[in-house]
Write a structure and sequence with these properties.
alpha/beta; globular
């Protein structure tokens, strides 16, 4: 994986957890956000919609079958979810540059995708 900085200087990446996500994934995203604050002094904002992201670097925390954005990324050929489908407690991390044509302000997307809820949480 290429380098992705959650915190770079005084800028922090945004966290994206879609409304379709499991409650446990949302809770862990909050915990990770608080951990980043403790370590860096800057806390990532967690949003539920891509349109709400205000940073050029975003971390998508998602589960196969529970994420329209993951499906779109796969359809667009930006990620492959084949290694996750039908598996238990597996995740992938992949950096996607310029992931969405309709959102050019997002320059880098770190995809943390799980095969199921636990896989997503392990990846996070």
């Amino acid at each position: 994986m290429e380098r992705f900085f959650v915190v770079k200087g005084q800028n922090v990446a945004g966290f994206l957890v879609e409304p379709e996500s499991f409650t446990g994934v949302r809770l862990v995203a909050e915990t990770v956000s608080e951990d980043v604050l403790v370590v860096s002094g800057i806390q990532p904002v967690i949003t539920g919609e891509l349109s709400q992201c205000t940073t050029d670097r975003v971390v998508l925390m998602a589960t196969v079958g529970h994420s329209p954005l993951l499906e779109q990324l796969e359809k667009d050929g930006k990620v492959s979810l084949e290694k996750l489908r039908g598996k238990r407690e597996v995740y992938l991390m992949q950096l996607v540059e310029k992931p969405f044509a309709e959102y050019p302000e997002v320059k880098e997307l770190l995809v943390i995708a799980g095969s199921d809820k636990r896989g997503t949480i392990y990846g996070m």
